[in-house]
């Protein structure tokens, strides 16, 4: 069987950044396996601008941002096999894939980076009454149709869900000549970035109906109308509040699900909150030598953070290859990170002071909209960080930075708590 130092599954922004940083760290025997016929992942269909402000201090489109990484990977001579679908990863890091060029083949990897991204929650997961007419698309499918295939899904549009892709598509459909009647959001807050609400809805006069859902879809062969109802605190439609919106298209932007079928089959421990692998400070999963980054780990709002995180996963995978025993040693003391008081989860979920770099960025999301709260970090009983935030919302990822010196100075700490506190 072919052997490789590092196999990266997925050639999106996460996989590419991981492969590049592993290579730059000295691990040059890298193979990227990508099922699509081109590298760049979902960014290829995100033709709007706004990417790369943090990474490159420039405003790029999705394909331009991806191209920076594709070009760098090519410059380094990193091997990427396209049209190659990974169908299995085993606990001992055998990666099995299939492609028209090679048929079914297996690679024994010393280290693996999982970077398979995420997929959209489909209509079937929502249980909206009505027939199954044409004209219902996930927002990402519509984005692909418009931006890559050059097809218009419809002319009179309603959008359910205010995740970023739905907001972006409200503007995109409008620019392409469609009329977007409204964006209905089940929760009392938007699931997307504030900047997208302003630039994609407010600037185009598209109403955002918070605490609303679609209670009925009309039409047998093609969508003819949807009924939008207000919801109560139990998130159930309130009878008598429904309004009929005639339309030919319904776009769904109701959540992204990390693609973890391969991880689950390999026996990687998954978080019930993020639905991504539970990782330590080096983004290593419960299987030594298997790392995860990007949307397969947890759903990100900005690709810049994906790239930062993936670069770390690549660096750590390279270090594992160079010195696997040290990273996989079980006797290294790991301290769990506990998310509480409005913090839904943290990535990583555990940390070893002896293995971490001098500083570690811990990312998290909150479970509601909070105004004027402190983000606090306790190591044992001691509060080490207390940072005031004016507004926090579930649609925006937050972060705190842990210092190695703080943890080394408290070797007996049983846990690190990340929480919100009132001013
Ligand atoms: C529809 C959609 C639209 C988005 N629009 C925006 C946006 O406008 N702005 C923004 O900042 N973010 C957007 N995002 C978020 C965006 O996904 C992330 O910022 C970033 O692309 C995540 O990078 P990634 O590499 O983790 O995942 P992806 O970009 O999804 O890359 C994952 C790659 O893995 C490959 N893959 C998956 N499974 C396998 C397998 N078994 N074998 C081989 N290859 C595999 C996929 O083909 C894909 O190329 C969008 C996400 C989606 C789903």
Description of the molecule:
This protein is an alpha/beta fold. Helix 1 crosses helix 7 and helix 4 packs parallel to helix 5. The N and C termini lie far apart (60 Å). A hairpin with a 4-residue loop joins strand 6 (85-89) and strand 7. The protein has 8 helices and 27 strands. It has 3 domains: 1-119 and 256-330, FAD/NAD(P)-binding domain, CATH 3.50.50; 122-254, FAD/NAD(P)-binding domain (3-Layer(bba) Sandwich); 332-423, no CATH class. Residues 9-15, 33-36, 41-43, 46, 85-86, 115-118, 120, 140, 143, 164-165, 168, 256, 259, 262, 294-296, 300, 302-303, 306 line the site of flavin-adenine dinucleotide. Flavin-adenine dinucleotide binds next to helix 1, strand 6, strand 9, helix 3 and helix 4.
Low-confidence runs: none
* CATH architecture term of the largest domain: 3-Layer(bba) Sandwich
The count of β-strands is 27
Full CATH superfamily name of the largest domain: FAD/NAD(P)-binding domain
* Radius of gyration using CA atoms only: 22 Å
Helix content: 10-25%
CATH fold naming of the largest domain: FAD/NAD(P)-binding domain
Distance between the termini: 60 Å
Strand content: 25-35%
Distinct helical segment count: 8
The biggest sheet, with number of strands, parallel, antiparallel or mixed sense and barrel status, is: 7 strands, mixed
